[in-house]
């Protein structure tokens, strides 16, 4: 019956080319190495080394055996390295889902920065609406989800980033761009690009304008705020959108202004209530929180020309 210590001694001799060097590598005595090799040859009923003068040389059987042994040791070393990487948060896999407001610009940029010094981390990034993201997290298809509040599910824990307001967007050169802050009355009679119902943002916007008795020209509806931003940047209409998407279109000429009364665009960070986050997910989430809060505090100063 062979044992792991005999295999370890055999590999050390093959790597170093001699009993003395193998003993130094294993930090044991030369007689101990010789005994382990002798016991291994007896157990296998094979001659593994031949003496040639003061040195030993592996037999063809030893060379064939070493190929198998080395693959096994490489596998063990890979397991150990992977474990070290996981502990140091340098490797792993993460499945993330995000609503379009985050998933088309802000989050991919953060993912790129996150991966830049983690070459052995794999991330699957999915995008959909908040209800579907909630289902993906609840059923274990994604470890982290980024959705629009409110969210309530027994199998999901929710952490919120508050204080992020929706913003007004205008075409380049629009007369209202001269104002520092826009109000509902500024939209009276203006062509308005709206998100399709039953989006939560759409409901909140409609309620504000109804409360202020303001009539907009509801000319265009779209599921995605990025479509509204693209149209407004191209010179048509006005809208109220999330600030994350708006930021991406400022370089295309989009004018962004604060809107009062404030319409909240809070982010819900979703995770399983049953399964704890992996170390990689914890790092990812901590970094995302810092980025999102920095965005809230800095960008909402506010951008746009």
Describe this structure in words.
This protein is α/β, with parallel strands linked by helices and 305 residues long. It folds into three domains: 4-73, Winged helix-like DNA-binding domain superfamily/Winged helix DNA-binding domain (Arc Repressor Mutant, subunit A); 90-162 and 267-300, D-Maltodextrin-Binding Protein, domain 2 (3-Layer(aba) Sandwich), CATH 3.40.190.10; 165-264, D-Maltodextrin-Binding Protein, domain 2, CATH 3.40.190. The protein is 44% helix and 21% strand. It has helices at residues 4-16, 19-26, 30-44, 60-87, 100-103, 106-115, 130-138, 200-211, 225-233, 243-249, 279-298, and strands at residues 49-52, 55-58, 91-98, 120-127, 144-148, 156-161, 167-170, 191-195, 217-222, 239-241, 255-258, 267-272. It has a five-stranded mixed sheet with strand order 4-3-5-12-6, with helices on both faces. It has a three-stranded antiparallel sheet with strand order 10-7-11. The chain has a two-stranded antiparallel ribbon with strand order 1-2. α1 (4-16) packs across α2 (19-26) and α2 (19-26) crosses α3. It is rod-shaped, with a radius of gyration of 31 Å. The model has no long low-confidence stretch (mean pLDDT 88). Keywords: DNA-binding, Transcription, Transcription regulation.
Helix content: 40-55%
Biggest sheet: strands side by side, in what order?
4-3-5-12-6
- The residue-averaged pLDDT reads 88
Under CATH at level 1, the class of the largest domain stands as: Alpha Beta
Which term fits the overall shape?
rod-shaped
Counting DSSP H or I runs of 4 or more residues, the number of helices is 11
CATH T-level topology of the largest domain: D-Maltodextrin-Binding Protein, domain 2
CATH architecture grouping of the largest domain = 3-Layer(aba) Sandwich
Number of strands: 12
Q: Oligomerization state of this entry?
A: single chain
What percent of residues are in strands? 15-25%
Task: Specify the biggest β-sheet.
Answer: 5 strands, mixed
Rg = 31 Å
What is the helix/strand order? HHHEEHEHHEHEEEEHEHEHEEH
Assigned CATH superfamily of the largest domain: Periplasmic binding protein-like II
Distance between the termini: 79 Å
Uncertain stretches: none
Quickly give the structural class: alpha/beta
